Amino acid sequence: MEQWKEIAASSDFKRLVREKLRVVIPATLFFIIYYFALPVLVGYAPRLMQRRVIGNVNLAYLFALSQFFVAWGIAGLYLRAAARLDVLAKKITDRQAKP
Amino acid sequence: MFLIFVGATLVITYWAAQRSRGTAAYFAANRQITAWQNGFAVAGDYMSAASFLGIAGIIAFQGYDGFMYSVGWLVAYLTVLLIVAEPLRNAGKYTMADVLAYRLNPRPVRAMASLSTLIVSTFYMIAQMVGAGALVSVLLKGIGYNTAVTGVGILMVVYVVFGGMLATTWVQITKAILLMGGTMVLSFLVLAHFGFSLSNFFDAVGQVTYTENGQKVVRDFMQPGLRFKPPYGALDLISLGMALIFGTAGLPHILVRFYTVPDARTARISVVWAMALIGVFYIMTTFLGFGAATIVGRDTIAVNGGTNMSAPLLAKSLGGEVFFGFISAIAFATILAVVAGLTISASTSFAHDFYTNVMHHGRERKPGQEVRVARMAAFVVGAVAIAVAIVLGPTANVAFLVALAFAVAASANLPVIVFSLFWRRFNTTGAVAGLGTGLAASLALILISPSIMGADRALFPLENPGILSIPLGFLGAVLGTLLTREPAAEVKFDELLIRANTGLGAEQASRQ
After folding, report:
1. What's the rounded Cα separation, in Å, for the pair B238 and B141?
2. Residue A59 lies in a domain
3. Domain B2-396, what fold?
4. In chain B, where the domains are located
5. Across the interface, do A71 and B77 touch by the CB < 8 Å criterion?
6. pLDDT at B198
7. CB distance from B240 to chain A under 8 Å?
8. Which of B41, B320, B375, B465 has most Cβ atoms within 10 angstroms of its Cβ?
9. Do the Cβ atoms of B203 and A56 come within 8 Å?
């Protein structure tokens, strides 16, 4: 019980949580906005989305396809950020292992 | 072909049964599954009949709008990756309810979570069974729909009851590899048909001919709007998007996968593996769906088993009877494996959450009893799903049932998972209210939707309830929380936060 309070109050843990939210919140907001832009535009701006870009391939299809690459990109960036957070987390768990 | 697969999976099950001893082994494969293995297994669990048969069918019949399912189903993994996978692995043991029960009053929360898990899994499973029955009764003329459904049911119960999580994981991995391989070959054949020219391919997609109301029509299948039409099409599209994006992170059979890996880092990497596989697969659904629309044609598919047979019929016209058999076997294997995954998550939840923790206050009375109860639950769940699938019959809409499972998961499960991880004030009343409101709202809205009541008489105009039921689920959780105070839950928030973020105190891979 005391142990948890101590960790929660430690600057290392506060830093970990702060850094983590700094990664997760913008990433989540970005992917939600980028994703919902697709159904909103397809639903409410069909004219724009029907515009042909290359041959018969239209904006709607290219935008949908871009979602895959954006999702992979966010996942890749998150992997890199998370590796940095792992180091911070390990500092905290190591200290607990040897009192 | 099909029999070889069934034989191979039975061998895997036998091998796994020999190695799987004890509770952590049965429910969580000893937490020794590696990142790529879990990635394949998550992908295998996810690429169900709805993905392979369903999306190909919707694209073949309604063009671009069907591709919206593919997009949502991949992007949904960002919710899993960024928000739920790692905390869940760190703070839980076997089921979603473990995380909720951590700082809340365990009995009511586990009872509700278990109910929601059973409902989501059963809807998902019935859909797969109906798909399997329809597939087999078209494929093998001698076997009827009822026999096919019963056959799948019995096989899946065998996998789960004897093999547990280790066997189901390996069945999923095998199946994911087969499905990816089959889809790649099929996409390659579609491109070859158009002389490896993407512009020829997309030009053909621009002029799809079929019969509508007795008249020949030509439509551009690249254009949106063939499925989601005014006045409510745009809202339905957003509603579907919400159910897909937020539902995946609440699907019990996906969540249990993260308990089979040794730590949060492995869980994270396995999600990225799954995203790579699922993404490539869903991009290829364009070739399957548009290929079926242009090469086989809507009219031919409609008289040969309907939308769900689009991908197998495409294989038949491009690769002949042998390839048709191969693709059908893969589709069948897909269903079998997904059903096994669903059964194990449903029976784990029943045994671990309801039987042990609700009925017996968290104490296992005899060692190994939880596993025995789970095996019995697998039998019962299997029997219920077989019975309902037979009652619904082969004409039931598979995509509708799966979208229902996603909407229910997004409305009931996701709000309480998010709040219990991120909101200090969140408490037991909030969790019960959130789960209850989410379940009730999504089920009620589906009952009064056009899919059940018919397009003219429906009280709720959208096919998918997500746009309303997901906010209601969150609202229920917030109101329930604000009504009462639970200091004990707030005190334990620090502990959960530390465990979820650092993995301190999490059960590591057990060596047995």
Report:
1. 41
2. no
3. Sodium/glucose cotransporter (1.20.1730)
4. 2-396
5. yes
6. 82
7. yes
8. B41
9. yes
Residues of A with Cβ-Cβ distance to B497 under 8 angstroms: 8, 17
Size of interface A-B (CB pairs under 8 A): 136
Q: Which of residues 58-97 of A touch B (CB under 8 A)?
A: 58, 60-61, 64-65, 67-68, 71-72, 74-76, 78-79, 82, 86, 89, 92-93, 96
Residue that is written with structure tokens 């919707």 in the block:
B58
The strand pairing partners of B37, in sequence order, are none
Q: Which residue of B has its CA nearest to A96?
A: B504
B208: helix, coil or strand? strand
What domain range includes position A15? 2-35+64-97
- Which residue of A17, A24, A35 to mutate against B (max B Cβ within 10 Å)? A35
Q: What is the pLDDT of residues B485-507, one digit of tens each?
A: 888 878 788 888 877 777 776 65
Q: Does B211 touch chain A (CB under 8 A)?
A: no
The answer as to whether A53 is a domain residue is: no
A78 contacts on B by Cβ (under 8 Å): 81-82, 268
> Which residues lie closer than 8 Å to B288 by C-beta, 6 or more apart?
B55, B56, B59, B60, B183, B186, B187, B190, B310, B311, B314
> Is the separation of the CB atoms in B404 and B123 below 8 Å?
yes
Q: Which residues of chain B have pLDDT under 70?
A: 1-10, 12-32, 92-94, 137, 139-142, 159-167, 305, 356, 358-370, 393-400, 451-455, 505-512
What is the spatial distance between Cα B72 and Cα B246, in angstroms, rounded to a whole number?
10
pLDDT of residue A26: 92
* Tally of structural domains, chain A: 1
In this prediction, residue B510 carries a pLDDT of 39
Give the DSSP H or E segment for B211.
Answer: strand B208-212
- Domain assignment present for A71: yes
Q: Is B71 on the interface with A (CB under 8 A)?
A: yes
